[in-house]
Design goal:
With 417 residues, this protein is of the alpha+beta class. It is 34% helix and 29% strand. Helix 7 (224-237) runs parallel beside helix 8 and helix 8 (255-265) runs parallel beside helix 9 (306-317).
């Protein structure tokens, strides 16, 4: 039988303090607080949040009551969330509203109405830089090219912090117009572009001669590995004995697709590994089956992220020669967290990745085995002949890639004699 003293002691231990805050019932047990079913936080953190909410509410009320124009509450709340994420000062981490997330998924799926530009933020100048203009797009037909800096959209100045807003402004209904101003070699150029349905290509391929195939991989999207395999099979049927893989201006994309393509090109082993701040390591592997032919890979300063994973892995395994310019230098892994209750998400940098030999290329890039500059005549041709294919003799990196593959084929032929 329980004594009165024990019962009293039990009653003292089992004290539940109930309080109301913002219409939420909270329960405090020792140093923890139950906010709602399944959500428990430390009392210290609860106090900090309560103080923050008080300050936030004061500022919100001042804005709503005194600002020149009446603001939308959703705009203020979304701005607060964006500001919290922006405080990390990471250009690859950002908060997306439900509407912005839909636009993000459109990018991944590959069809939208706009001008046909792939853009990125260059860290050194915080400017929106053209990575590529999709072949046949309004932007390409107008002569906008890689390296151009977008400084105004519809007359409004933009920079790297306004990337999403600038991209959204360039999109719209087909057959409507948008004015885009770019900076090129110190000169400001204005373009009035007519929006169109853009089917973002992920690659194109052809035979360069009767022995060497060529695949230009624009980005890594949901079907890139399937399309890459189809391209390899088609080129093999045309007599391909060597391959030039072009990753110039490839901004990256889905890591899973990159690894699947690497699996076709690499022997059994490590493709890359990622590591988070806690030291947790995740490895991505290739199996033994792969194509074993002479390979050259073309890269430039706009080859980023997944394209650096692929070129770095090929370089570390020694199965291909890397040609061109040092790559962009983005060695970080982003993860989508959400959707949350309202359909919003955070795209968050969660880890850094390393090549098979343990190189972290963030802010360093992949250094090519053979450095080749683009010819000035090539840039002039692209600007003056928008939409036309660059002749091989003006494409110095591609010419060198073809030369290196032909040299390897010749060496293999001599070994076989």
């Amino acid at each position: 039988m329980i004594s009165k003293r024990a019962a009293a002691l039990g009653a003292i231990i089992l004290i539940i303090c109930t309080a109301f805050f913002s219409s939420i019932i909270t329960m405090r047990i020792n140093e923890y607080i139950l906010i709602s079913q399944g959500d428990v936080i430390k009392a210290e953190e609860y106090t900090e949040l309560k103080d923050f909410y008080k300050k936030f509410n004061q500022i919100k009320n001042v804005i709503q009551e005194e600002y020149l124009e009446e603001p939308e509450l959703d705009t203020l709340l979304n701005g607060a969330l964006k500001g919290m994420v922006a405080s990390l000062k990471d250009p690859y981490t950002y908060y997306l509203t439900a509407e912005e997330y839909k636009d993000f998924l459109i990018d991944v799926e590959g069809t939208y109405a706009g001008v046909g530009l792939s853009v990125s933020v260059t860290v050194e100048d915080n400017m929106i830089t053209v990575v590529s203009a999709f072949k046949g797009s309004p932007a390409a037909e107008a002569g906008i090219t890689a390296g151009d800096k977008i400084i105004r959209v519809e007359g409004e100045e933009v920079d790297g912090s306004m990337l999403d807003a600038a991209v959204n402004k360039m999109r719209g209904e087909p057959d409507t117009q948008v004015k885009v101003s770019i900076l090129r070699d110190g000169e400001i150029l204005d373009f009035v572009l007519t929006r169109a349905i853009i089917n973002i290509p992920d690659m194109e391929y052809k035979m360069l001669d009767n022995e060497v195939g060529y695949i230009w991989l624009y980005r890594f999207d949901q079907r890139s590995s399937v399309n890459f395999l189809d391209a390899l099979n088609d080129l093999h049927s045309q007599g391909m004995k060597g391959l030039v893989l072009d990753l110039r201006n490839n901004p990256g994309g889905l890591l899973s697709e990159c690894v699947a393509i690497a699996d076709m090109l690499l022997p059994k082993g490590l493709v890359l590994y990622s590591q988070d701040r806690h030291g947790n390591r995740e490895e991505y592997l290739s199996n033994e089956e792969h194509i074993d032919i002479p390979l050259a890979v073309l890269v430039n300063e706009y080859s980023a992220s997944a394209s650096e994973v692929l070129s770095g892995a090929i370089q570390d395994h020694g199965v291909g020669v890397i040609i061109g310019k040092t790559t962009f230098g983005k060695g970080l892994v982003q993860t989508i967290r959400g959707p949350f209750k309202e359909g919003d998400v955070i795209k968050l940098t969660t880890a850094q990745y390393f090549t098979p030999n343990g190189r972290n290329i963030d802010k360093k890039g992949v250094v090519p085995d053979i450095e080749v500059d683009e010819l000035e005549e090539a840039a002039d041709f692209i600007i003056n002949n928008p939409g036309e294919e660059l002749p091989l003799e003006l494409d110095a990196p591609l010419s060198r890639g073809l030369e290196e593959v032909k040299k390897l084929l010749s060496e293999l032929s001599e070994e076989g004699e």
